Amino acid sequence: MSLVKLDGKRFPWNERLIDLFNRDAFVDDDFFNLEKKHPSMNVKEHKDDFEIEFAAPGFEKEDFKITIKDDVLEVSAQKEKEETEEEETFTRREFNYNAFTRTLQLPASVDRSKEVKAVYKNGILSLKVFKKEEAEEERKKVIKVV
Fold first, then answer.
1. Please, which residues have CB within 8 angstroms of residue 6's CB and are 6 or more apart in sequence?
2. pTM for the complete prediction?
3. Distance from the Cα of residue 27 to its chain's centroid
4. For the purposes of burial, counting CB atoms within 10 Å of the CB of 138, is it exposed (0-12), middle (13-18) or buried (19 or more)?
């Protein structure tokens, strides 16, 4: 018995079958996707405000764009980096592109007339979104199960 190298010319149906299982669409689910397309986010509710934190290391504060329109908060960032190193016998050129966009529906308790405060420090973007005064006075109603 001899071994024969398998190629697409000999069995053309085999290449299509392998492509079916190698396609990203076959398992196109976030569970299988190990590469994150957006930074992790924490949302904390305080008495007077909401604090939203994004883990976005590697950016500068000038790279962020934060907007509010129609009760939707959009946070995006884009960074392009290009590095060239030239020596006598070689040239090395590296580039990096990193971007993300996250959108959040703001609750009705947010006061849209107040400015959103944004601080970027140690790779964490922190946003403070203030609540309306009447929303601060609302108490949680406990419902008993019978």
1. 14
2. 0.61
3. 20
4. exposed
Q: Which two tokens stand for residue 24?
A: 């990203």
Query: Per-residue pLDDT tens for 9-64?
Result: 555 555 555 555 555 554 555 555 555 567 899 999 998 999 999 999 989 999 99
> How many other CB atoms are found less than 10 A from the CB of residue 50?
20
3-state secondary structure the chain: CCCCCCCCCCCHHHHHHHHHHHCHHHHCCCCCCCCCCCCCEEEEECCCEEEEEEECCCCCHHHEEEEEECCEEEEEEEEEEEEEEECCCCEEEEEEEEEEEEEEECCCCECCCCCCEEEEECCEEEEEEEECHHHHHCCCCCCCCC
Q: How are strands ordered across the β-sheet holding 64-69?
A: 64-69, 72-86, 91-105
